[in-house]
Amino acid sequence: MPQRSTSGLHFGRTCGQRVKKVHLCTMSKVRQRSSEHASRPVVVGVTGGMAAGKSLVTRMFAALGAPTWDADSAAKRLYQTDATLQQATLDRWGPRIAKLDEDGRMVDVNREALAEVVFSNPDELAWLEAQVHPAVGRAFSAWLEDQPHTPVVIREAAILFESGSDATCDVTLTVEAPEALRIRRAQERARQLGQAVPSESEVRARLARQWTEAQRVSKADIVLRNGPKDAILPQVLAIWAQLTRESH
After folding, report:
1. 21 pLDDT exceeds 60?
2. Which of 85, 157, 158, 190 has the fewest Cβ atoms surrounding its Cβ within 10 A?
3. Are 155 and 69 in contact (CB under 8 A)?
4. 3-state secondary structure of 79
5. Taking the CA of residue 175 as centre, how many other CA atoms within 13 Å lie in the half-sphere pointing to its CB?
6. Which is higher by pLDDT, 104 or 215?
7. Residues 41 and 150 sit within 8 Å (Cβ to Cβ)
8. CA–CA distance from 89 to each of 3, 22, 81, 136 (Å)?
9. pLDDT range class, residue 149, cuts 50, 70, 90
């Protein structure tokens, strides 16, 4: 079970023991990085359930000065730029999942068509993830090489643990909120974007395809609570102070 620290943060079991303060475990991971990684920035992986607030937390870290990298946005760009991924998806499903230019070349993926294929068939989804995740990992590594003079960078990913991307992180953080609140946030976000507002059952179906809160909490070094009575900014500031202190 997660435990509230004296700073108001929630932490699960990490480094084999229950911790009360972030520096007792998480910061020891920063200090004990291998010599291979000691010369690069501390990589903080940020994840969380749908509409829990992970992008909000990432923006807060960015405002504090951390370079940030969004895996979901990177994956979308790869469909436009990665010829290997484009060809693999075309070979697998044909032009119905592609947006083609006037010369018949793929310039992007048709996301609605692709979603119809992969979200109704677990085998197809697994195949797609096996193509996308390595490409995203290569893109992150290339980006990280261009961040040599900053102490901390943020890697945001909706499926940080599921994809194995947490292996590239020095510290992992999950943002959690009550499910009912997340459903309302997801509906409001769609409304603000001018998209079709999903029903409660549709949102729950999407949540069911993700890891549960318990699974994320069991893997994360740090758990931030973003419920109606939680102040998220003080939690982020406390973590930032610890990270920047230990990374120097």
Report:
1. no
2. 190
3. yes
4. helix
5. 27
6. 215
7. yes
8. 44, 43, 13, 15
9. confident
